[in-house]
Amino acid sequence: MKTTFDPVPRAALLVLTFATVIGFTDNYVRVIAAEVGLWQFHVTRTLMILVMLAALIRPMGLVLRPRRWGGVLGRSALHGTAMMIYFGALGFLPVAVVAAGLFTAPIFVLLISRFVYGHRIGIVRVVAVALGFAGVAMVLGREALEGASLAALMPVVAGAFYAMGNVATREWCAEETTETLTLGFFAGIGAFGLLGLVALTLFPVPVADGAAGFVARGWVWPSASFYGWTFVQAAGSLVGVALLMRAYQIAEASRVAVFEYLALPLAAFWGWLLWQEQLSGQAALGMVLIASAGAMIALRGRQSPEVSPTA
């Protein structure tokens, strides 16, 4: 009797590894932020990733040329904006809190699909949206909601831009290869970094010491430690994206998307293990609500790139 192979456990293991790697590497952005600026970090990381991709073109037969330049450039701009905000927030906030903001992307995807493209959403998804925003309110806390902490709102803004990029993946880039979109993603982030470096060189601003100056800091001569941790970030990003893409290739997207929410507890775990960060009970419950909302959206969704919070 022939045994049917179930790809879901393997996909879950791949996503678990992805979440573990990303949770670890993102926690060390604060180390980079203490020395170098956001813009220089992204330029350096992008150059490292481009070298790695160039080395893989021939052995893996990668196709990197876009079919629709406008769609890829637009998607890259949206995702690039999201990632600049996301990494900027990592200089000030715990990774788990920032990740919770980014994982609101499926909620914004639903809202954009409904009010921009006119797609209908059922009652389950409406409940999921309400549940997700309640979770966001709990993670951010009263101070952020009252406008006292602009930095705390940054991850949610990143989630909104990421959602727009995810919608663009479906609407503008359906015929592009995965490696083309991956290249566009990282190249867009690097372009933002280069623009930021040029702007801060021409119009320098006062820079605070340490991580507080992460966003305002222009070019500096970094130490070997910076290059080491940036390489870890670059390699971790490529490995993580490759694992996630493989998971989506072997199993149904709606099932894989649920497993992505493992990134929230793993980010909190690494923050506790590395920096002894403690999340409040309210923030932890908020993350559970966000993950529940994303799972409801994913399980009700059809197989499509939009379902994924971070793909």
Rg on CA atoms, Å: 19 Å
Please summarize the sheet with the most strands: none
Residue windows where pLDDT falls under 50 for at least 5 positions: 302-307
- Percent strand equals under 5%
Question: Class by helix and strand content?
Answer: mainly alpha
Oligomer: single chain
- The number of helical runs is 13
State the separation between the terminal residues, measured CA to CA: 37 Å
The outline comes out as globular
Count of individual domains: 1
Order of helices and strands: HHHHHHHHHHHHH
- On the 0-100 scale, what is the average pLDDT? 83
- Helix fraction bin: over 70%
Q: Tally of extended strands? A: 0
Question: What's a quick, concise take on this entry?
Answer:
The chain has 311 residues and is an all-alpha fold.
Compile the SSE list and pairings:
Blueprint: H1 8-27, H2 29-33, H3 38-60, H4 69-90, H5 95-102, H6 105-115, H7 123-145, H8 150-172, H9 178-202, H10 224-250, H11 253-259, H12 263-275, H13 281-300
Helix pairs in contact: 1-10, 1-12, 3-9, 3-10, 4-5, 4-8, 4-9, 5-8, 5-12, 6-7, 6-8, 7-8, 7-13, 11-13
